[in-house]
What does this fold into?
Amino acid sequence: MFGDMSSMMSKLKEAQQKVEETKTRLHHVLIDETSSNGKIQVTITANRELKAIKIDDSLLNDAEELEDYLIVTLNSAIKKATEINEQELAVAAKSGMPNIPGMDLFK
It folds into this structure.
C-alpha cells in the first residue's frame, strides 16, 4: 500500500515538473496575429505575454478605428494562445499522472 502511495507521489511530482517545463517552453512559442485589414500585427507568447505590436501609420489618424482593430486582433491572438497553452499543459499533466481508478481528470 505505501509503495503504491510512494509511486503515486513520485508520478505526481513528475507531472508537476513536466507542467513547469511546458510553461517555460511556452514562453518561447510565439503567435503572430494580423488584423483583417493587414494594418496591425501583434505577437504574443503561448503564455499570453504580449511581445510586439506593429501599427500601420495610416491608422494613427483615426483613434476609434485603431482601437477597434487592436481589440479584435489582440483578442484573436489571446484566444489562439490560450488554446495552445491549455492543450500543451493538459498533455504535460496527463503524461505524468499516475493511473488512479476513477480519476479521469483529463479525457
Remarks:
- The mean pLDDT is 86.
- Strands lie at 30-34, 40-45, 50-55.
